[in-house]
Design brief:
Structural class: mainly beta
Shape: rod-shaped
Number of helices: 0
Strand order of the largest sheet: 16-17-23-22-19
Largest sheet: 5 strands, mixed
Strand content: 35-45%
Distance between the termini: 128 Å
Oligomer: single chain
Amino acid sequence: MRHSIVLFAAAALAGACVQPKYPCSKDADCPARTVCGSSGKCEVPGGCEDICAANQACDSSTKKCVAVAPAVGTITVPTTWAKRSATIPVTAVIDGTGTPGLASATLQIAGQPDIAGTTGDTGPVRTYTFSVPGSVQTAGSETPVDFTVIGTDTGGHPTPTAAAGHGQLLIDDAGPTVQGVTIIGGVDVSGIRWFKAAATGTIDAQANLVDAGSGVDPASLTLVLDGTATRFDTGTPSCGAGQSAQQVICHFAIPLSAVPAGSQRKIQFAVAGADKAGNALKANTAAVGIDGKAPAITFTIGNAGSTGNTTTYPASFADCNGSASDPAVYCGHDGSHFYRAGDGKYSLTFTVSDVYPTPPDDQGSGVDTASGGCSIAGSTATCTVTYNSTNGTFNFPANFATATFASGADGTGTVSVIVTAKDAVGNLATSSPLSLNVTRLKWMRSMGAMITSPKGSPVVTSIPTAQVILAGTDHDALGPIASLAPDGAVLWRAGHTDAVAITSNVAYSSATKRLYMVGDTQTKLFVYDIGNVTSANAPQLYN
């Protein structure tokens, strides 16, 4: 049903009795269509007592206002908005009383051809109908279109401008604008809100829409996948008033099951719908992420120096003999083993990726860099993972001291390790158990080429540096006394030319840093300065 608004033209007041005689000093002091007379009062030109209407003039012979052109009365125009493709009916009452007779009525719009009215009436007062094409509206506009209506009598006199009728046409040729879409909740990853996929539950998407014309039609609104007509939301959106009369705020429900189980993707979508005149929403786009796919963990081990693995064993002779290869030394760090204890300075490394090679699952919520976890089978020690933002790796210490471990006669065995990580929305990934080679033995040194027939117990001291002091029979002409560092390296030798074979225990004073040795003949006592070793030789102080 089309509603209409009724407008009354100024000429409808033609019969009003308005006395013009006000005190004045100039014309500007007087009402319209009067002047300031010589008497100092406002007068109607021609001598009429009353002010004539805009379509009237004063007859000086009768001193009465008479019509000189038709008057425009009631104008009726629809109050509902029409599309630009529609035809809008307008009616206007034209009063030709006092004129020679009505000839026509015209509806005028700036910049458009005049539109002639039609009527079936024959009397002095007639109702004219105008069929206005919607194309009088500027394409893409929703601003009301102003118009005027005039009548013309058979003498060719048109309604004066001041007496013309006026109105506005409600023609809407612009769809609503989406001012923005806000995804409520979730995890913000580079400006996109991500949610964990689920069989039930929804995401709240708030859209702010504005339309200055006919207004948004809430019943038409849906969310669709970008570039398609495929609906993306579920149920009926909930809409309410915005911050202005033209704004509407609507909430849409996006199902968490919108992506298949075990999948992840960033979804581009748009708000679809129309205004109350039927104009489609203007182009818009938004995005949300739904992630039901755990990230991928890469956790592998390779020999020292190998490539293509996330972790490698310590280098051969690392932490043995000053890291120098020596055929007389066996090192537990042989390039393919960790120490069971004491290797906390070495890291086990793994990587995590939430990017897959095949669309549409290629993009997920991203890795939660604080989520790394590790489990060393049987270990009672806390296993803590840290993230290296420089190279994007997760790392934790190679600490196997309390891990479940069974070794063979050679001291080697394996330890099982599992690592975990999550993506930004909490999907958990767990690696397969990785078996690592571990040895109880740190190092062994063959002393046969240096000292044989060790005498007594070794001296173990941390002053002036950690070492083990051994004494026996000189075999390589460097002295019957040797000091070994904690990694098996030779720190110094002593006693060359003083004795060949030591047959008594040596003694050491950590207070004076002096080592006491009895010579071959049991008649000499040699004293060495352990605090001032030079060139790998402990100098003799006296004998």
